[in-house]
MxaH protein (Hyphomicrobium album), 172 residues
Amino acid sequence: MQTLMHSMRPLLLTCVIAGLAACSDDGEPAAPQHTPPVPVAHQADHELEWLKQTDGLLPEQWLASREAGHELDRFDGRVSDMHAVLQVAAMRFRDHPRMIANRAVQLETMLREKNIEERAPRLIVTLSQVPGKQRYVESFASLTQQYYNLRTSGLSRGEATDALRRQVAPGQ
């Protein structure tokens, strides 16, 4: 019996180590069963909630596609228009276009949760006008938080924008 146990030790070890392979009743490892891969649901690019550096999608293409409700080719005129909007915002703030796009979508979501409907591209345009043609000393993210606080306190888009402009250029 001890010889039998000794001879089965490598087989038992193999079964334990493999963990996934089962042993059949005759002491031989059972053939591994192949299960077909489970298909992973692919989220369309325009449905992404956040644009990561690794997504390989231009922020202007992502925003324009979100607005259109479907994927747009990067050479579509709406993508070019969105590129121009993001470039203006990037010149006025310390943030890159990808971060501006992400923050604008985040703000859109936060406002929607408070039953305030404003789309991300419009938010970028509106907030880019706050500092005028000068460079804003704070980040776009900082301005989005201030705008959110003003809008959720009951101010309209225009009132909130005016209040932010007064903060940028007090006494004017």
